[in-house]
Write a structure and sequence with these properties.
Strand order of the largest sheet: 2-3-4-1-5
Helix content: 55-70%
Structural class: mainly alpha
Number of helices: 49
Oligomer: single chain
Strand content: under 5%
C-alpha cells in the first residue's frame, strides 16, 4: 500500500495518458535518499502495466564515469527483450550492429562491430538515432515506459542518450522516467547542468518528492503495523525520522525487534547499522563483502570472493534477506543476484570497513573476475575488473585493465567513459615498471596515427596513449582536455625525429580548434603540412593533404585548391587509405564544379555517392550525399537537388547520421525555397533545426529560416533568427557559404528598418574579398539584394549619401564573377536591371531580359519580382493601350505568384502599383477582378492628412507644411500626430519610409 504521493501519481498517470495519445513524455523524479522515489515508481509501473503498457526498468551503477556506459539502458532493453522477444529483434532490424552496443544479445555472428570504427565522429549519434527509432517502433502498438533509476550515478553517455531521446522522439507512445537523489547533487555534480538543460525544455516535467507530513507518517505506521499507532510513538518517530519514509520504516522495524527509538544515536549511519548489527557475525561479514561489489552482486561472484561454501554462504545470506536488508535481484548470469534494499544501507555497511580491509576486498573481487569472467555479464566485465584493480591500488594490473575497459567503451561509442579510463591510464603510467609497460599490446588505431617504428616488438608507448585519449576527448567534445593531452604530446615529440607523429598531433589540434569554435584551424593545419611536405607517402600525409583541401574549399577556395585535392587523392591511393581517398575525391569533384567544370564535377559526385554507399563508411556516405545536393542547388538544378537530397536523407537515416541529416535537409530546403515550395520547406526547417547536433549545422538551418522570414515580410523574426545563427556559427562565420548569407540578410534587415548607413557599411565590408570560387550563387544573390534595396531607398530623404559609392562597388564585384550556368546568367541580368533602377534608370529592356532568363528556371519568387519591376518600368512612361495591357498581365502573374508563395512584400508592392495605375489584378486566365482600393484611403487617411504625409515624405518641417497648405503650424503638428497614429509609426522618418515603400505619391 502506497501512502501519500497522490498528486505525484496523478501527474504520472496524466503523462501516461498523454503518451498513449502519441505525445512522448519525459519526467524526472527527485528527492533525498529514502524519501520514496523507488516506491512511487513501482506503484506507477504496476498501474501502467495494468493499463496495457510495457514497462522496463534499468538502474545506474556507481561505477559511473569509470567505464560502465549505458548501464541502465542495457538493463531496460534486456527487460524489453525478455518481454517482447522476437518483436524487439524485428524492430531492431537494420540497426543490430549499433544496438548491440547497448544490448549484446542483438549481435549476430559478427559481434557488435558496426559500420565505421570506434573513432567514427558520427558513431555515437548513429547509435542514439537507432535507439530512438527502436523505441518508436516498439511503441507503435502499445505505450512503452522506460524507467532509469539513480541518475545521480549515471555516466555521461547515459545522460547524453537520455537527452537525445527526450529531444528526438516524435509522435511516439513513450514515457521516459528518471529518478535521482537531490541531496547528492552538489554544485559540481555532473548531473546538475544536465538537469538545468532539461528544465529549459517544455516537454520535461520535474517532480520533487517532499518528506512526509505528520499525518502521512501516521498513515505509513498504520500500513506497516496494521493498526493505528499510539500518539507518543507517532511523536517520537516523526521527530527522529523528520518525515523521511525510509527512516520511519527503520525505526518501526527497530521497535518490532524490541529496541527503543529514544536510545538511538543522532548519527544517520548508526541508525542504519542498528539492524545490521543485530544479525549474526557471519551475515555481517557477507554484507560488508557485498557492499564493495557495487549496486548489485552476483551470487557466484560473492561465493568466489567470500571463500565460503555454497551452503555456508546461503545460510549467511538468509538472515539478511529475511530482515529485508538484501533483496533478490534476478538477472545475473546463470544465478540470482542480490542488492541492498536501499543504497543508504549499502553505503553505511561499506563505510564500516577499515581502509586496508577495503583494498583487500577489491583485490579479491578483481582476482575472482580475472579467473572467471563468466561471473558477470560480458559487457560489464572489463569495466568492473578495471574498477576493482584500481580500488585495490595495484597499478601494474590496473593499467592494462583500464586500457581494455577503455577500448570496449570506445567500441560502444561511450567516449566520455573511454576518456575517463584513458586519463586513469595516463595517471597510472609512471607507477608501472618499464618491463611491464613493454608487455602492453600496441593500440588498435583506425585513424591515420603512425605507430612507433621500433626495432623491438611493437608495444604501447606513452605518446600512443596520449593520442588515443586525445581522440576520445575530441569525440566527446571535451575540448580543454583534448588540448591538454595534445599539448603534452607535442612537448614530448621531436619534430625532426618523428615528423609524421607530430603532424598527426597538429592535425588533431586543428580539429580541436575548429570544433571548439575558437578559430578556423589553418595555423595548426599549416604546421602539419610543413612537417609532412618532404616525407614519403603515408596515411597521415594523405590525411593532412585531404584535410587541407577540404579547409580551402570551405574557407578560401581558389584555383590552387584543385591541385591540393588531386595530391591528396594520389597520396591516399599510394598507401591504400580508402576512406581518406573517397573524402579527397569528393572535395576534388566539388571544387571542379566550383571551377566551372560543372558537368564533369556533378557526374563525378554521382559516381562518388554510389561508391560511398558501397563503402559503408558513415562519414563518407553523409558527405557524398550532402555535397551532391549542395552543388546541384548552387548550379540551379533545384528539382534535381531535391530528389538527390531525399535519397541522401534516406541513406543518412539508415546510418543514423544526425548532423548529415540536418545538412542534407538544409540543402533540400534551399532548393525547395528556390522552386517555391515554401510551406513544405518551413515544416522541414522546424524539424531540421532540432536535428543538428553541431552548432554549425543549426546555424545553416537558422539562416535558411531567416531568409524565408524575410521573403514572407517578417523582418523582426528574420532578425531573431539571424542572431541565433550567428551565435551558433562561431568561427564558421568565416566560411563564405555562411558569411555571404549573413551579410545579405543583415543588410536587408537594416535597410527595411531604414538604417541605410549601417546597411551600406555591412555590404562594403562583406564585398572586400572577391571572388570566391564556387560561391558565385551566393554572391549574385547578395548583389541583387543590395541593388534592390538601394532602388527601394531611392528618393527617401537622407539616403543619398554613400549610394553611388556602394553601387559602384557592387558593379565592380559583378564584373569579377563568371556566369557558366543558366542560373548565374539569370542572376547577372537581374542584377543589371536592379542596378539601373537604383541609379534612377529602370529600363524595360533590362527587365525583359531578366524575365526571359528566369522563366525556364523555376524561380517563381525572383520571377515575380522581375515581372513586377518590368510592369513598373512600362507604366512609368504613362503607357496606354497594348503596353498597359502587357503591364496588367505582368502584374497579374506577379500577384498570383505572391499569393501562392505567401510573399507579403511582393504582394503588397504589386497591389500598390496596381492601385496607383487603376489596373485590375487578374491571374493568367482569370476573369477581370475589381482593382484594389486606393492605398491612401485604405490607410484611413483624410485628404488633408494625405497632403500632409506627402510633404512629410518630401522632408518638409511643420512650418513649411503650414506655409504650403495655408494652415497654422499648430494645425500642421496635429495632422502629423494623427497620421503617425494611423500609420502605426513613431516618428516622421518612419512615416516617410512607409509612404515611400508603398509608393503612395508616385504618379503612374
Amino acid at each position: 500500500m502506497l501512502v501519500g504521493r497522490a498528486d505525484e501519481l496523478r501527474s504520472l498517470g496524466a503523462a501516461l495518458e498523454r503518451a498513449g495519445a502519441g505525445a512522448p513524455q519525459a519526467l524526472l523524479v527527485g528527492g533525498e535518499a529514502g524519501v520514496g522515489k523507488t516506491r512511487l515508481v513501482e506503484e506507477f509501473a504496476g498501474r501502467a502495466e495494468r493499463a496495457g503498457a510495457v514497462v522496463a526498468v534499468g538502474g545506474c551503477l556507481e561505477l559511473g564515469a569509470e567505464g560502465l556506459p549505458f548501464a541502465p539502458f542495457a538493463t531496460a532493453l534486456r527487460a524489453l527483450h525478455r518481454q517482447l522477444g522476437d518483436e524487439l529483434a524485428r524492430s531492431a532490424r537494420g540497426g543490430e550492429a549499433e544496438l548491440a552496443r547497448l544490448l549484446p544479445e542483438l549481435a549476430g555472428a559478427g559481434g557488435a562491430e558496426g559500420p565505421g570504427d570506434r573513432h567514427d565522429v558520427e558513431a555515437k549519434a548513429r547509435l542514439f538515432e537507432h535507439a530512438a527509432r527502436l523505441l518508436e517502433k516498439l511503441a507503435a502498438e502499445r505505450t512503452v515506459v522506460l524507467v532509469l533509476e539513480d541518475l545521480h550515478w549515471s555516466d555521461r553517455s547515459t545522460r547524453e542518450l537520455l537527452g537525445y531521446l527526450i529531444r528526438s522522439l516524435q509522435g511516439a507512445r513513450v514515457v521516459l522516467l528518471g529518478t535521482y537523489r537531490s541531496d547528492d547533487i552538489h554544485r559540481r555534480h555532473p548531473l546538475r547542468p544536465f538537469l538545468a538543460e532539461l528544465e529549459r525544455l517544455r516537454t520535461v516535467e520535474r517532480l520533487e518528492l517532499a518528506r512526509f507530513s505528520r499525518q502521512e507518517v501516521i498513515g505509513q505506521l498504520t500500513a506497516i503495523r496494521g493498526t493505528g499507532p499510539l500518539p507518543h510513538l507517532v511523536d517520537t518517530i516523526f521527530q527522529r525520522s523528520d518525515g523521511n519514509p525510509f527512516f520511519v520504516e527503520e525505526l518501526t522495524a527497530l521497535l518490532d525487534c524490541g529496541g527503543s527509538p529514544d536510545a538511538l544515536s543522532e548519527s544517520l549511519r548508526d541508525l542504519l547499522l542498528v539492524r545490521v548489527e543485530t544479525l549474526p557475525e557471519a551475515t555481517q561479514r557477507v554484507l560488508r563483502t557485498a557492499a564493495e561489489a557495487g549496486s548489485t552482486v552476483e551470487f557466484g561472484l560473492l561465493l568466489a570472493v567470500s571463500g565460503q561454501g555454497e551452503e555456508e554462504l546461503i545460510e549467511a545470506l538468509r538472515p539478511a534477506v529475511d530482515a529485508g536488508i538484501l533483496l533478490p535481484a534476478a538477472g545475473g548470469p546463470g544465478a540470482d543476484s542480490y542488492r541492498f534494499r536501499h543504497a543508504l544501507l549499502r553505503e553505511a555497511t561499506g563505510d564500516d570497513l577499515l581502509p586496508g580491509e577495503r583494498s583487500r576486498l577489491h583485490r579479491r573481487y578483481a582476482e575472482a573476475l580475472a579467473a572467471d569472467p563468466s561471473l558477470v555479464r560480458t559487457e560489464e566485465h572489463a569495466a568492473r575488473l578495471a574498477s576493482h584493480w584500481y580500488a585495490a591500488r595495484d597499478p601494474a594490473r590496473a593499467l592494462p585493465a583500464a586500457l581494455k575497459a577503455a577500448d570496449e567503451a570506445g567500441m560502444r561509442h561511450a567516449f566520455a567513459e573511454q576518456l575517463a579510463l584513458l586519463r586513469r591510464a595516463v595517471e597510472l603510467w609512471d607507477e608501472v615498471p618499464e618491463e611491464q609497460l613493454r608487455e602492453l599490446p600496441a593500440a588498435r588505431y583506425a585513424e591515420s596515427y603512425p605507430l612507433c617504428r621500433c626495432a623491438d616488438q611493437p608495444h604501447l608507448h606513452f605518446v600512443d596513449l596520449l593520442a588515443e585519449a586525445a581522440v576520445a576527448a575530441r569525440l566527446d567534445d571535451a575540448h580543454e582536455q583534448a588540448r591538454t593531452l595534445t599539448r603534452r604530446a607535442l612537448e614530448l615529440l621531436d619534430d625532426e625525429a618523428e615528423p609524421e607523429r607530430a603532424a598527426w598531433f597538429w592535425l588533431e589540434r586543428q580539429w580541436q580548434v575548429v570544433n571548439s569554435g575558437g578559430a578556423d584551424g589553418w595555423a595548426e593545419l599549416g604546421k602539419a603540412q610543413e612537417l609532412v611536405a618532404d616525407r614519403p607517402p603515408s596515411p597521415v600525409k594523405a590525411d593532412v593533404l585531404a584535410t587541407a583541401a577540404l579547409w580551402k574549399m570551405l574557407h578560401s577556395p581558389d584555383p590552387a585548391s584543385i591541385p591540393l585535392a588531386e595530391s591528396a587523392v594520389e597520396q591516399a591511393r599510394l598507401v591504400g587509405a580508402g576512406e581518406v581517398e573517397l573524402h579527397a575525391r569528393i572535395t576534388l569533384a566539388t571544387l571542379r564544379t566550383h571551377a566551372a567544370d560543372v558537368d564533369r564535377g556533378i557526374a563525378e559526385l554521382y559516381e562518388l555517392r554510389d561508391a560511398a554507399d558501397r563503402s559503408g563508411a558513415p562519414t563518407v556516405i553523409g558527405r557524398a550525399h550532402n555535397n551532391l545536393a549542395s552543388v546541384l542547388e548552387m548550379t540551379g538544378r533545384s528539382r534535381e537537388a531535391i530528389e538527390a537530397a531525399r535519397g541522401g536523407l534516406a541513406a543518412a537515416r539508415k546510418q543514423g547520421l544526425r548532423d548529415s541529416i540536418a545538412f542534407i535537409g538544409c540543402n533540400m530546403v534551399d532548393a525547395m525555397i528556390s522552386v517555391g515550395e515554401w510551406d513544405a520547406a518551413e515544416g522541414d526547417l522546424a524539424r531540421l533545426r532540432s536535428y543538428g547536433a553541431q552548432a554549425r549545422t543549426r546555424a545553416f538551418a537558422g539562416l535558411a529560416a531567416a531568409w524565408l522570414a524575410l521573403y514572407r515580410g517578417d523582418v523582426d523574426r528574420a532578425g531573431e533568427l539571424l542572431a541565433e545563427a550567428r551565435a551558433d556559427a562561431g568561427a564558421s562565420q568565416a566560411e563564405p557559404q555562411g558569411s555571404y548569407r549573413m551579410v545579405q540578410i543583415e543588410a536587408r534587415i537594416l535597410m527595411e528598418r531604414g538604417q541605410y548607413g549601417q546597411a551600406r557599411a555591412v555590404l562594403a565590408e562583406g564585398l572586400v574579398k572577391l571572388p570566391e570560387l564556387g560561391h558565385e550563387s551566393y554572391l549574385w544573390q547578395l548583389l541583387v539584394s543590395a541593388a534592390a534595396a538601394e532602388g527601394d531607398a531611392r528618393g527617401l530623404p537622407g539616403t543619398a549619401d554613400g549610394r553611388d559609392e556602394l553601387l559602384d562597388q557592387l558593379e565592380r564585384a559583378a564584373g569579377q564573377l563568371d556566369t557558366p550556368t543558366p542560373i548565374w546568367a539569370a542572376w547577372q541580368r537581374y542584377f543589371v536591371a536592379e542596378l539601373g533602377r537604383a541609379r534612377g534608370r529602370s529600363e524595360v529592356a533590362l527587365w525583359e531580359a531578366a524575365a526571359s532568363a528566369l522563366e525556364p528556371l523555376e524561380r517563381p519568387h525572383e520571377l515575380g519580382w522581375v515581372r513586377y519591376r518590368w510592369a513598373e518600368a512600362l507604366l512609368a512612361g504613362g503607357a496606354a493601350g497594348p503596353v498597359r495591357e502587357r503591364a496588367a498581365r505582368l502584374l497579374g502573374q506577379a500577384h498570383a505568384a505572391a499569393e501562392s508563395l505567401g510573399a507579403a512584400p511582393l504582394r503588397d508592392g504589386v497591389e500598390q502599383l496596381a492601385a496607383r495605375a487603376r489596373i485590375p489584378l487578374t491571374a493568367p486566365g482569370d476573369a477581370a477582378a475589381p482593382g484594389p482600393e486606393d492605398p491612401v484611403e485604405a490607410l484611413g487617411l483624410t485628404a488633408r492628412e494625405a497632403d500632409v504625409l506627402r510633404l512629410v515624405t518630401a522632408g518638409r518641417s511643420n512650418r513649411q507644411i503650414a506655409e504650403e497648405l495655408f494652415i497654422s503650424p499648430k494645425t500642421a503638428s496635429v495632422h502629423v500626430s494623427n497620421l503617425m497614429a494611423k500609420l502605426g509609426v513613431s516618428n516622421r522618418g518612419e512615416a516617410a519610409a512607409l509612404a515611400h515603400r508603398m509608393r503612395l505619391f508616385e504618379s503612374a
